[in-house]
Amino acid sequence: SGESGQFSLRATTGANVVAYSDDAGLMRRTRYCYSVRAVRRIGAKTEYSPSSNITCASTLPLVVPPAAPSNVAAVAVSSEQVDVTWRDNSTDETRFEIYLTSSDVNGTYTSTITVPANVQAHRFESLVPGKEHCFRMRAVTIVPAEYGIIHTDYSAYSNTACVLTPLGPPPSASGAVAVPSGSTSVTVGWTGVRRVGVSFRVD
């Protein structure tokens, strides 16, 4: 009933103990307040110290890890873009985490992005053409900070979905123009197709 409520004896400990875990029959999402005092018994005489400060904490709501997403699928929509879709099996997730790995990093998941709750699709862009890209994900639930701590629970990982991005059309450059820029230098400009993994060579 709060700091000004009626206190009753909850537990006693041995001497020199400095912590106690109260886990007997408390209710979820309920605020409990505590005060401590020392007791000394000499023969039939019992002496009490003044009570300590009052400290309060709230029990958390029942936290159950969210259900893992399933049916993860990946489809290459261009040489640099992949659409990832999945089934949302949880009802209380805070967000989803999607993990990405490519065939040139030996299966190590090197990239993670987050998407909001209830979303069931995401497009990855600026991927490397001609590589196999694999995706897996999990749901995340975060207990609100109103309880004094932030508690995070994770689902199991989903299935893994892999897709090979095509190489795309060959690189091209056209319209090269050379302009003197000094007594010993020339500046060359051109029009080229800008794609991930494509560079230009001037001969």
List the topology elements.
Blueprint: E1 31-34, E2 39-42, E3 45-48, E4 55-58, E5 70-76, E6 82-87, E7 95-102, E8 111-116, E9 121-124, E10 132-143, E11 151-154, E12 161-164, E13 173-182, E14 185-192
Antiparallel strand pairs: 1-4, 2-3, 5-6, 6-9, 7-8, 7-10, 10-11, 10-12, 13-14
Strand content: 35-45%
Q: In one word, what is the shape? A: elongated
Distance between the termini: 83 Å
Secondary structure category:
mainly beta
Number of beta strands: 14
Mean pLDDT over the full residue set: 86
Q: Rg to the nearest angstrom? A: 31 Å
* Quaternary organisation of the protein chains: single chain
What report would you give on this structure?
- With 203 residues, the protein is mainly β.
- It is built from no helices and 14 strands.
- The protein has strands at residues 31-34, 39-42, 45-48, 55-58, 70-76, 82-87, 95-102, 111-116, 121-124, 132-143, 151-154, 161-164, 173-182, 185-192.
- Strands 7, 8, 10, 11 and 12 form a 5-stranded antiparallel beta sheet that branches. The chain has a 3-stranded antiparallel beta sheet with strand order 5-6-9, with no helix packed on it. The protein has a two-stranded antiparallel ribbon with strand order 1-4.
- A hairpin with a 2-residue loop joins strand 2 (39-42) and strand 3.
- The chain is elongated, with a radius of gyration of 31 Å.
- The mean pLDDT is 86.
